[in-house]
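We read letters as residues; the integers encode the fold. Take this protein.
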Amino acid sequence: MSQLKTSSAQMVADARARINEIETEDLMAMLDDPNVVVVDIRDVRERQRSGYIPGSFHAPRGMIEFWVDPESPYFKDIFGQRDKTFVFHCASGWRSALTTATLQDMGFEASHLREGFSSWEKQGGPVEFPGAKS
């Protein structure tokens, strides 16, 4: 196999150097703020298996650039709310760092949960599961 020009770890490090990262305890404190939109970019199977942050919006990583672009036929209205604070997360913070950097390049301001959902669970953040009755 030939050597890659840039490793995935380097891409994540480069993204993290230029985006806003939110610590788990800070996002926990923001969870009830109606101006904060938590966006879960994990695969649907991850959400089913591990649960999700209550009130989070699911946006698969493979579609996110299209969902935030108002000129795309796949645009989702939730991303047109420019007065909201968007915080993206994945399991460990790698995918969400890359996603947030890409969205920033597009002109969409967002932050990401630095250590991801795994830290959220470890620190006792609330978790819901699909189909669970409240």
About this structure: The mean pLDDT is 95. Residues 54 and 133 are 13 Å apart (CA to CA).
